[in-house]
């Protein structure tokens, strides 16, 4: 893919590419959707290339939401969702995922819908928890969206980062959902090329047309050489991204085993490269230290930086107080060094 970028700079024009994306990539996105999600897509009217998945989110919010529209989110949630939805004038409605399995309460979800509900945002596989929504949960969401005539924005950037034995199912593949769902994909996550900032949307032509109007005035287009390389990758590098789940599961197991030995309680997950763990058992007796304070202390004293899970909540008072997020898309040597540092630190303190 890197060679395709280099050759494209010399063999093709370096002027603005088409606003919607180069045909090669849009065709590859459509083929990828049919091949891996079982969802047929017309590349000419149902695809849009964006400057990463975050721009896809921003353009979708600006295109689909008016002031006062309500948007349903699941918490914990990716940090850009709320500010971007609010920038579009929308009103967030938060539904909690309940640890340790990050389950969805059907009654809580149903209560979040109202006559003002315009959009539901679903991120699966999920950041920061690693949860992959089950078929039953997806059907529940689909039924409620159909009943309330609600649109859905599907953040599926981790679609290939699923552990063996678990299947990622796109909500758009369920009956009655194809015409109301937009799917977001990411070359950064699929190929571990986050610096390239190439993302895409696929979905109904009328929704894509609306999002394209916002995209036009946010970034207009995406570097053509990178687009051609991603097109090549989607078509020709399937063994790489289809094998990510197994590789990441091995890394998670390496980390999980040692964290458990140190005293963390690791929560379950079925995908992504995130691991959430409870550190309550590592606190001194009587300590009231929360996740933010714990992460500051580990950074300063152990040389290992974690992310407090409360950072992924709109209201920290609703967040668990003793959960932290690890990221294990690192070399085994770096993961081992982090475990060694934590073991040494907590050993000294015990």
UniProtKB/TrEMBL annotation:
Keywords: Aminotransferase, Pyridoxal phosphate, Transferase. It comes from the Eukaryota. InterPro entries: Aminotransferase_I/II_large, Kynurenine-oxoglutarate_AT, PyrdxlP-dep_Trfase, PyrdxlP-dep_Trfase_major, PyrdxlP-dep_Trfase_small. Its cofactor is pyridoxal 5'-phosphate. GO terms for cellular component: cytoplasm. Residues 13-342 form the Aminotransferase class I/classII large domain. The keyword Transferase applies. Pfam families: Aminotran_1_2. GO terms for molecular function: kynurenine-oxoglutarate transaminase activity; pyridoxal phosphate binding. Belongs to the class-I pyridoxal-phosphate-dependent aminotransferase family. PANTHER family: FI04487P (PTHR43807). This is Aminotransferase class I/classII large domain-containing protein. It comes from Chlorella ohadii. The lineage of its organism: Eukaryota, Viridiplantae, Chlorophyta, core chlorophytes, Trebouxiophyceae.
């Amino acid at each position: 893919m890197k060679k395709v970028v280099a050759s494209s700079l010399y063999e093709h024009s370096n002027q603005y590419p088409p606003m919607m994306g180069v045909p090669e990539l849009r065709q590859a996105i459509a083929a990828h959707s049919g091949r891996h999600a079982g969802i047929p897509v017309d590349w000419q009217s149902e695809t849009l290339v964006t400057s990463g998945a975050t721009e896809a989110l921003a353009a979708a919010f600006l295109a689909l939401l008016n002031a006062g529209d309500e948007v349903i989110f699941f918490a914990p949630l990716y940090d850009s969702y709320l500010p971007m939805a609010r920038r579009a004038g929308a009103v967030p409605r938060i539904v909690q995922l309940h640890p340790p399995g990050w389950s969805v309460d059907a009654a809580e979800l149903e209560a979040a819908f109202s006559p003002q509900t315009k959009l539901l945002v679903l991120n699966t596989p999920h950041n920061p928890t690693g949860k992959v929504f089950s078929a039953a949960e997806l059907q529940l969401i689909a039924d409620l969206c159909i009943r309330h005539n609600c649109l859905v924005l599907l953040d599926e950037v981790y679609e290939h980062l699923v552990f063996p034995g678990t299947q990622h199912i796109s909500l758009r593949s369920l009956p009655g959902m194809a015409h109301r769902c937009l799917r977001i994909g990411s070359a950064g996550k699929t190929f571990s090329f986050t610096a390239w900032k190439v993302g895409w949307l696929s979905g109904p032509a009328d929704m894509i047309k609306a999002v394209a109007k916002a995209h036009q005035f946010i970034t207009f287009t995406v570097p053509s050489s990178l687009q051609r390389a991603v097109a090549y990758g989607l078509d020709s590098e399937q063994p790489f991204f289809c094998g990510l789940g197994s590789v990441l599961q091995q890394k998670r197991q390496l980390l999980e085993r040692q964290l458990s030995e140190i005293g963390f309680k690791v929560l379950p997950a079925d995908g992504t490269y995130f691991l959430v763990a409870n550190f309550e058992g590592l606190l001194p007796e009587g300590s009231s230290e929360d996740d933010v304070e714990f992460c500051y202390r580990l950074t300063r004293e152990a040389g290992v930086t974690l992310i407090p899970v409360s950072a992924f909540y709109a209201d920290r008072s609703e967040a668990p107080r003793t959960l932290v997020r690890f990221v294990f898309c690192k070399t085994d040597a770096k993961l081992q060094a982090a475990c060694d540092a934590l073991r040494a630190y907590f050993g000294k303190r015990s």
